[in-house]
Amino acid sequence: MGWLWWIGAALIFGVIEMLTLSYVFFMLAIGALAGALLAAFDAPLWAQFATVALVSMLLLWGARPYVKGWVERTVPRTNTNVDALAGRQAIVEAEVTGIDGRVKLAGEIWSARMEEPGPPLAPGSTVVVAAIDGATAIVKPLPASPNDPQNPYPTY
Questions:
Q1: pLDDT surpasses 90 at 152
Q2: Which run of H or of E encompasses 90?
Q3: Is 146:156 a contact under the CB 8 Å cutoff?
Q4: For the chain, what are the domain ranges?
Q5: The whole model's pTM is what?
Q6: Which of 45, 25, 27, 23 lies closest to 35 in space, CA to CA?
Q7: Which of 21, 35, 80, 147 could hold 6 in an S-S bridge, CB 3.0 to 4.6 Å?
Q8: TM spans, by residue (predicted)?
Q9: Residue 31 contacts residue 64 (beta carbons within 8 Å)
């Protein structure tokens, strides 16, 4: 029956690992499974704890750096939160100058300012987010398409 406690510990470590993604609790979960194996064969409690500690430490020291490096090399990096907003288009809601303004970005109203000094951006115009500085979107005018009917120099 003692093996069931080790399986429970392994499951708890597994859940914590899913929340942290540090590969530390994954190694502890494998150590707990080793303890469950010894408990299934009626090993003394001190041997179970010693095995859990030894297996966990060996995995943390020996396997974790390789596992972490392999995952970082093979899994593509995905930008999230404000990092994912750079490069997106926004609509000017209130005139944007080098100091102040408002844009609608990703369905929300953001305070905004221009990246470089220039004429103010009028409401309704489309801009591109260059960066996010705190709670302020740093924007620049959307470059005109070469085939835009309002472009005085269209390409044919």
A1: no
A2: strand 89-94
A3: no
A4: 2-74, 81-141
A5: 0.56
A6: 45
A7: 35
A8: 12-39, 45-63
A9: no
